Design the sequence.
């Protein structure tokens, strides 16, 4: 009887490191699989377009890149997705006073809502091609959603913004869950 108890204890003690090793291996595989999606997405060729579209939130880095693209003559007009209220709303952004820039709030305030807002804007302004600016971890999901929900030609570019290791963990988890949601939910209807 005593040898049976010792055998069970030894077996249980061996299964803990095996489970820990399996968990670590799973985390490493998840991190490696996410590298081409979230850390190093393929870089889109930024050609001339009808519109530059900054999707939310409109951070200073995204706005600066949009302004640079307009100065370089990539497009004459810009659309900026802003929060309906509070921080980063149109009232908070001086760029929204620029005549070449339209600041609007998508409904819903999601990537699919932003695709729907672009669809409505494109119909109204005869936009056929758009440069979409987001941040690097969001590029792959943005490309997927815009390919699914927007009929025009889109080039998605990511701006590197400083992310701490904990931010990268959050982005891996958030973007992965949001990717699954994007696959199984329909596009938002264009408003306007």
Sequence:
């Amino acid at each position: 009887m005593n040898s049976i108890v010792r055998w069970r204890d030894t077996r249980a003690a061996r299964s803990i490191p095996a489970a820990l090793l399996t968990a670590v291996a799973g985390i490493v595989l998840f991190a490696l699989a996410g590298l081409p999606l979230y850390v190093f997405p393929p870089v889109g060729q930024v050609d001339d377009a009808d519109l530059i579209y900054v999707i939310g939130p409109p951070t200073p880095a995204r706005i600066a890149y949009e302004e640079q693209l307009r100065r370089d003559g990539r497009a004459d007009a810009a659309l900026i997705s802003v929060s309906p209220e509070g921080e980063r709303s149109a009232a908070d952004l001086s760029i929204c006073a620029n005549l070449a820039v339209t600041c609007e709030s998508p409904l819903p305030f999601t990537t699919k809502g932003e695709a729907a807002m672009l669809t409505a804007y494109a119909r109204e302004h005869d936009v056929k091609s758009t440069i979409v600016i987001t941040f690097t971890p969001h590029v792959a999901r943005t490309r997927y959603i815009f390919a699914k929900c927007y009929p025009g030609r889109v080039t998605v570019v990511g701006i590197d913004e400083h992310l701490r290791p904990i931010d990268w963990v959050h982005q891996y988890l958030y973007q992965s869950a949001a990717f699954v949601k994007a696959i199984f939910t329909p596009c938002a209807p264009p408003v306007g």
Summary: The beta strands are 51-54, 77-81, 101-104, 129-135, 153-159.
